Amino acid sequence: MIAFWIAAAALSAAASWLMLRGARAASLRAVGEDPALAVHRRQLAEIDDLAARDLLPESEVRAARAEAGRRLLTAAETARPNPAPTAGRRPVLAAAVLVPLLALGLYVMTGSPGAPDQSFARRLAEWRRADPATLDPPRMAALMRMIVKQRPTDPEAFRNLALAELASGDAMAASAALRRAVAIAPRRADLWAALGETFMAEGEGRIGVDARAAFAEALRLDPGSLSARYFLARADIADGRVEQGLAGWRALLATLTADDPSRAALSAEIAAVTAAGGLPQAQAQAAPAQPDAAAIRGMVEGLAARLDTSPDDPQGWIRLVRAWSVLGETAKRDAALARARALYKGRPDILKALDEAAQ
Question: Which residue, 85, 107, 154, 273, has fewest beta-carbon neighbours within 10 Å?
């Protein structure tokens, strides 16, 4: 760290020297002869010009040249060069030298010059041990980038990276992560639906061609995909096929249980579109919400809650074990693993997938 401050002081001094050098060069350019000399030379030039155009008799030309020359010689003998301005240069030089030294002294007195630099890898290790809910989106994204390097064939890790990138405001990086996820697990409808939502985030809420293709693939793999059904119906309404889109939303509403928190929101949206005859402009351009670290954790906990009530879902248990493992929640991972192993103790294929997810 001391070496850094010495280098910073040296650079500051060098920059100040260059500034003073430029100022001195400008002041030297400002140093010139007595203005009177320029006047007399201009008079000589004017006499020559008049003579060349035959506007001044030859006899007068000689007399005028002699008089102008005499005045020029007299002015040259008494002329003094304009002195270069020096006021203010010494204080600038003193400040250029003292400010870096003062900064270095203050750091030595109040800082920790002997503390070693903390490597990025060490910080990543600390963030991984921390509660994910305490990490801001950029740190969560950095942590997930490290995890996907360690798990290059884990689609769940790339899915969580996409969520973190979205929370950081980088929709393009999120879609890149989900493209990798669907390349690894092309049969997972939830990944295709998430990819469609990231395409929407890139398009500031518009459901473009890429988003529709992703939602269509999700719906092909899982005809019950809530996200795909909702956004494809919304796309129909945005395109002017209002009745077709509303029919899709009403069919989706009929599948939601009475205590589903999204039921009230969808009912209100159906009523608003019915009344307006289409999507209001503000809603048509609204981008999907970007989840933060707490939302990522909430999604995993939501999956765990669903498996508590409907445990017959082997792929769900594999996803849950993998998600807890990625988030560093070893206790919850082990608890989910133990319950899943008890449920599927007669299925060696599932047990193998669970063990791989726990790594």
Answer: 85
